[in-house]
Each structure stands twice: as C-alpha cells, then as structure tokens.
Amino acid sequence: MVGIKGLSLFANVGVAEAYFQELGIEMLLANELLPERARFYQELYPHAEMICGDITNDEIRNSIVRKAIDLGINFLIATPPCQGMSEAGNRDPDDERNQLIYYAIDVIKRLKPDYVLLENVPRLLICHIRVDGELMLIPDYIKRELGNEYRFNAETLLAAKDCGVPQLRERNIFLLVKKEKNIVWEFPPKEKEITLKDAIGSLPSLDPLLREGLELTIEKFPQYVEKEKAGRAVSKWHRPPKHSWKQVEWMMRTPTGKSAIYNKRYFPQKPCGEPVVAHHNNYRRMKWDMPSRTITQNNGVISSLCCVHPGREYIENGETLYSDARALSIYEVMIVSSLPTDWQIPEWANDTLIRKVIGEGIPPLMVKKVMQELLKQIQRGGKANG
Would you state the pLDDT for residue 82? Predict the structure, then answer.
C-alpha cells in the first residue's frame, strides 16, 4: 500500500489538497501565517495539525521540522507567496516576499522528504533574488540547493485547461523525487479543454443584488427573487453577488466576451462623465466557448480582470441587453476552480475571504492529476518509503 504523509507550507486554506483524501494521501501537518486561514484549514482538515505562525521565525520553523519528523512526513507541498514577482510591481530582487523561498528550501533540506511539489506563478522562472549578495534566478537557486539529492521534472509549466479544469490558469510546478528512488515524476497527459458553457452553462441565471437596496433591485430586475430561489435550490453558494447599479447598467450593455470600456454610451465613467482609465480586461465578460481566464482573488469585483459572467442576449423595450450582469457566484467560482461542489466551507467565512482564498489557490484538480502520476510511479516501484 502506498503511504504518503504530507506537510503543507504556506497552506492557505488547503485548496490544493481538496482531493488528497480520496487519493489516500494523509495531510498530517500544515503551516499558515494568517489565523483566519489557519482556522479555515483546520475545519476542512481536522486530522491535520496546524502550526499557525511565521515560517521566517526560527522557533516556528524549527517546530514545523521537529513535528514533521515525528509524524514521518515523506511529502511536502509548498506555494511560497510571490507578490514581489507581480508584473504590476517593480520585481525588486530584495522584496522580502520573494525571499520566502529560502525558508521552504530550509525545511526541505532539514526534513528530506521523498517527494516535493513546489508551485508558483510562471514568472518565478525569470525572477531574481539576492543570494549571498549576488543576484540569482530562483530556479537556479532551488536546483543549486536541492539538485544533488533530488531529481526534477523536465517540463515545469502546466496549464489548468490541460488538466480538465475550465480555466486558463498556468502555474510553474517543480516536482522533486529523491534520486535514490527509481521514480520519474512528470506531468499527466493533456486532456480536452472544458469550456465555460460545459462547466456552468446549465446553472440558473442570476440577477445581481444592487448595493442600493432590494427595492431598486426588484424594480430593475422583476424576476430577481424567483431567480435567487432557483439558484439557492442548486447550492447555497449559487447566490447573487452584490454590485452597484452603475456598474450593472454598464455590463447589461456589454456583449459576451467584450469589455464595457469599449461601449459607446454605457462605459465605465466617473461622476463627471470622464471615462475610467482601465485595462482592456477590466469590466470584461467571459466567453462561453472557452475556459475561464485566471480566477483572481478579486473575482467578485466587476472592475477586476475578466470575472463577469458571459451572459445571454435578450431584447427589452427594443434594446439588446445581456443577462447576468454580475461577477460569477461563489458556486460558479468553485466549479471553474475545480473545487468539489460539496466543499465544506465554514459557516463563519464571509464572501470576501472565500473568494480571495480560492483565487489565490491552485486549482485542486491540477494537483490531483499531478499526484496521480506520482502514485502510479510509486505503485510500479513498490512502495513510498525507500
């Protein structure tokens, strides 16, 4: 029997681990900085021990290593935060957020797990950090520190759409296996793309809940209550997001796949009528005939990057309009992010937190498919522990 006992660093709420239990992977230990997320993780995975604290703190990191050794951990998954690598940022090699990779590597070197999954944004491949006063590419640093003991996968860029996830998100994933093991761990074969129509096209339409109040909402959308009930009958998470009327009005005039910034009249504008300066993917509706663009942490905000429902054309008073002038519901975000539709979200978690942790997490079906490849190789080799 394959025995994988795991440690999750920078655990978020355990989005990546959503399918581990059904694979027989035991997540026994996790570390997360933020108490709210640590609590979320603990409720999802009550059998795992959560060490809540800053991994850069020597005492916390030592505690993680000691506990992992005691538990017989042989697998580590880590997603060090990488805000300093953002295209919108200055990509400062001294940005302390980029330095978090040091601490993940330190834990790996001391724990020496058999298998490691290091996941991050594709920009990691071209991002420099400062090591002993010298600039070094992060991949070069990782391989310098771990290359003697571990074998790395040949290709490191993997797209969610190639793993049965209806999302274009791409990640850089290093798969490490101890060289002493007769195992080659690579990505799974590519799968057929799943479109948004395939994924969420059959769900009930929802009208947005207007920030100005329920009275105006029903005035503008007479079927609001009926649609809301139909949505909640599918899932309590398929409920209307809340938006301002001005933004909803812009999106009602925005066709599927288009951005409101190109509308001739109903475009994003300031109170004075001056156009809002925006990226071409802001205020944009998704497309039915392709996977979703990357789900971000701001996936509930119409003005964010391409997070508005594709909608469907209809005619009202002789004018062509488009339904579902809203961001995706949390339920739709879960589906597009490949989370189980019965994912046990804690009752106390608010919508902002839920959307943020999903947007920051790697689609778990990607991780499931990658881990299945490892399990196949382990089974062929006979056992998980050398």
Answer: 55
Domain ranges of the chain: 4-192+361-381, 207-328
Is residue 196 within 8 A of residue 310, CB to CB? The reply is yes
- Say yes or no to pLDDT of 88 above 50: no
Question: Does residue 324 come out as left (phi exceeding 0), alpha (psi in the -120 to 50 range) or beta?
Answer: left
Cβ atoms within 10 Å, residue 57 = 12
Q: State whether the Cα torsion 245-250-252-258 is positive or negative.
A: negative
Task: Kindly report the number of other CB atoms within 10 A of residue 72's CB atom.
Answer: 11
Integer angstrom CA distances of residue 21 from 4, 24, 341: 11, 5, 16
Look-up: residue for tokens 């189980």?
340
Active site residues: 82
* Domain with residues 4-192+361-381, CATH architecture: 3-Layer(aba) Sandwich (3.40)
Q: Could you give the CA distance from residue 143 to residue 35 in angstroms, rounded to a whole number?
A: 32
Q: Convert the chain into a string of H (helix), E (strand) and C (coil).
A: CCCEEEEEECCCCCCCCCCHHHHCEEEEEEEECCHHHHHHHHHHCCCCEEEECCCCCHHHHHHHHHHHHHHCCCEEEECCCCHHHCCCCCCCCCCCCCCHHHHHHHHHHHHCCCEEEEEECHHHHHCEEEECCEEEEHHHHHHHHHCCCEEECCCCEEEHHHHCCCECCEEEEEEEEECCCCCCCCCCCCCCCCCHHHHHCCCCCCCCEECCCHHHHHHHCCCHHHHHHHHHHHCCCCCCCEECHHHHHHHHCCCCCCEHHHCCCCCCECCCCCECCCCCCECEECCCCCCECCCCCCCCCCCCECCECCCCEEEECCEEEECCCCECCHHHHHHHCCCCCCCCCCCCCCHHHHHHHHHHCCCHHHHHHHHHHHHHHHHHHCCCCC
**pLDDT per residue as tens digits for the range 138-181:** 999 999 999 999 999 999 999 999 999 999 999 999 999 999 99
Q: How far is CA 300 from the centre of its chain?
A: 14
d(CA 82, CA 276): 29
